[in-house]
Amino acid sequence: MKKIVCFLLLFQGGMMMAQTETVATINGKKIQVVPNGVGTADNGITAANNNVQLGGLLVKPTTLITTSTETLSLLGLQDGVAADKILVVDAGGVIKSVANTSNIKEIKKIAADYTVADTDFTLLASQLTGDITITLPAASTNKGRMLVINQLNVANDSGAEVTVKFNTDVVYTDKLSAKELTAGFNSVSGTLKVILQSDGTNWNVVSSL
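The structure corresponding to this sequence follows.
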C-alpha cells in the first residue's frame, strides 16, 4: 500500500513538473511558468486560464479567405423577423448590414421641395399650396430602382393649379419626356400617380394610375 501511495505522489509530482517550470526573474525572484501555455490573444481571439476561444474585439481589418471548395458555413442560426437587417458584401469584400427593404417600403408625405432619400419608395405630395420640385437621384447609379409618386391634389384651396416637377426629364413615351408629373389624371379624385423606374440612363414612367 505504501508503494502505491508513493508511486501516486511521484506520478502527481512528475505531472506538475511536466506542466510547470521554475524560472528566475531579472531580480532573482523564482516563479512558476507553463512552458507551453498561452500568453495573450487578440483580434477576435480570447485567451483565459490557458484556454483559447473564438470571440473578442477585432483590432485590425481582418480577412478570411475562402475558395470554391474551402467554404465557410454557419449552422444553427435563429430565425429572423421582417424588421431585421440583412448582410451584404461590398465590392471590396467587406461585410455590412443594411435595412431589409424587400417587403417593407418607405412611404412619406411631402408638401414642399424634396430630395429623394436612399430609403424612399412612395412619395405622397399632399395639401400642396404651390408647385414643388422633387429631386430624383441619378439614374446611372440607381438602375432598377422604383419610385411611386402620387400627387393628392392638383389644385390648392384657392383653385389654382399646382404641379409636381422633377429636377430632370422623366420618360413617358418614345416621343414624350417632361420635367413634371403629367400622367394618370383622375378627374374624380383629382390626383396624378406614376411609378418611375431607372434603366441606368433615365427615369421611365412604367405605370400611370
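The helical segments are 2-19.
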